[in-house]
Each structure stands twice: as C-alpha cells, then as structure tokens.
Amino acid sequence: MIINHNISALNTHRQLSSATNAQSKSMEKLASGMRINRAGDDAAGLAISEKMRGQIRGLDQASRNSQDAISLIQTAEGALNETTDILQRMRELATQASTDTNTTSDRGEIQKEMDSLTSEINRIGNTTEFNTQKLLNGSKDSATAAQPAVPAAPAVAGVYSLTPGTSDIEIDGKSFTYNGTPGAGEFSDAAELAALVNADATLSAKYNASEDSGKLVLTQKTGFESATAPTGATFTEDTAGKAAVEAKEAVEKGAGLQFQIGANENQSLTLEIGDMRASNLGLTGTGDGFTATTNVSNGTDSKGVESGLDVSNAKNASAAITKIQTAIDNVSAERSKLGANQNRLEHTINNLGTSSENLTAAESRVRDTDMAKTMMEQTKNSILAQASQAMLAQANQQPQGVLQLLR
Fold it and tell me: Is the pLDDT assigned to residue 146 strictly greater than 80?
C-alpha cells in the first residue's frame, strides 16, 4: 500500500475532467444550436460551411439584384407603352392628313399636333430614368452613340502651331515683341508667348493658347471652328492635335446594363436599351418628308430644335404613315426584347431561390447540431461526471486503510 501517489484518484480525476469537458461542449452545442462553434470543433467542416455561406448570401443578393433589374425593365417598358400610344395617334393623324377632303388650314392644325406629339416622344426618351440613370436616350446601348438632345455632329476645332523665332510675331493683327529678357508685353519663348495670347481679350475669345515642345499651339474655340488659320505668322495645321480635340469632343458610345444575377464572377446578364427618341425612330430629320421649320423640341422646353414629319400635303402625309409604322415596329421590337429579358429574370429568381434553399440545407447539415443526439450525449456525459465525482470520493478514502496498520 502506498500513500505518496493515489493512482486510483488520479485516474478517476482524469476521467472526471474528460466527462466534464464533454458535458460542457454538449451544453454549448445545445445552447447555440450549432455543431461547430469554433474551428477546433471541426476544422474542415468550418471551411466548407463558410464557403457555402458565401454562396448562399451571394445567391440571395443576386435574387435581389434580379428583382431590381425587373423594376428597371418595367420602368423602361412602361414609358415605351406610352410612346406606342403616341405613335398610334400620329399614324391616325397622318392617315387623316392624307386625304384631300382636308384644307390647307386643316392640315396646319394636324401638323401642330404631330409636332407636339413628336416633342413628347423626345421628352419621354430624354427624361425616363431609373435611380437617376437615363434609360431611353441611347446611353444604355453600346451599339450606338448616345447623342445629345439635338442630334448634331460635334464641332471640330482647328489646331494650329508655330515655332517662334527671334523676331516679333503678329497674330490676327496683334503684335508681340520678342526680347531675350522680356518685360511687360514681351516674350522670349513659346510659353511666354502663349501667356500673352491668353491674356489678350480679343485673341483669347477665339483661341486657347498653349506651349508644346517649344511650339505655340492655338486651338480655335467653339464658334470659330470654321475660321481660317491665324494670320500674321506662318502657322501650320496640327493634324495630331486636331484629332485629339475631335476625340475629346466626340460623344462617347453608350454602355449596356450589366445585371449581376449569380453569386460568382462573370455570372451576369447584359441588357441594352436602344435610343427611343424621335430622331432615332425616323420621326425627325431634314430634307424631303420633313418640315422646313424646326417646331419639334427636346420635350423639356418649348424651343424648337428639330424638323418633324411633314403632313402639309397628301403625298408627304401618305409617306409619313409608312415612317410612323416603321417607328411603331421598332418600339414594339424594343418592348418585346425588354419583356423577354423580364421573363428570363423571373426564371432566374426562381432558380436562385431553389439553389439558395438546397445550399442552405447542405450548410445546415454541416454546421447545425442534431439536438436530440446532442441531448443524449449531454445526458451521458452528465451521468459520467456524477459517477466520476462519486468514485473520486471513494478513491480518496482508500489511503485511510494505512492508518489501520499504524495502530
């Protein structure tokens, strides 16, 4: 018999500690409902579960994105529905104007309504928005350039340059004095000469002056694009500079809408919405079939900026019927495309919901605890802990037998 090491008590204590720890973990699982509360519970399971959670949240957000995309499409299609109604009325008016039972005065009144309705089509195209984004002005169509309210080619500026020497220079009647050490109104290089040009009220109204690699560069301002090259010195046309100005002034192409409809990269849908304003629909223009005056506005004010379809005589009115029918067909095609994409998105939402549900079930099997099974384990561990406590008390009594030998 030994008393320095109570092996029975040590063993019982180890068993008690093990049962107590197991009981604590079971209680934690029961309290949280989670089988994995920390990485130590199941390292691989935690990694798999977190990956699934990322997918589930991505699918749920993609579903919300798709709902928003449907709202955008409905906004655009609703506006085009009104455009179609306007076009049908315009077709009716053109048919009315095609018959010679109308007098010149009658056709004049019909023309007023035609121009007004065309302006309204422009207004719808220029102002229809979703979340501040224009939808029907061509900015959501990468195939066509998003034109301004009044279709027109951008102004092309002339760009001219010269290398100043060691002599005085005259530009459009203005003289500038060369001096190696310049004072007021004098220059010694291109940069100082550019500053003098920009400081002159008359020249600065016509040009933007700058210095480029020792050359004086004059770029004509808006309104002076058709002017000749600057006079009084030998200026050469800077074709590279002109091309740069043209590129800067050109209207950039539109960009199609990208809807993220999946949880991962490159899972998107592209939607392009064409320009549904009067010019792009062939309802305004120049030449035969259009009025000589510009009575069609951009729809946001009353200023006439475009020429609408001419119905002042039977021939033009009859031709207008065909043009309006073509516009109706184009608008109907656009609405059909929008409707098809809306139906697609509705199926996408259903699929995303199914995927999210199934993935959630899979994640639950990995992460969540089986309450019944865990309760069974907790009960077992509780009984083991109580039994270990009782046995530890018995083991601590064993060394007491040594006292019988010492009597």
Answer: no
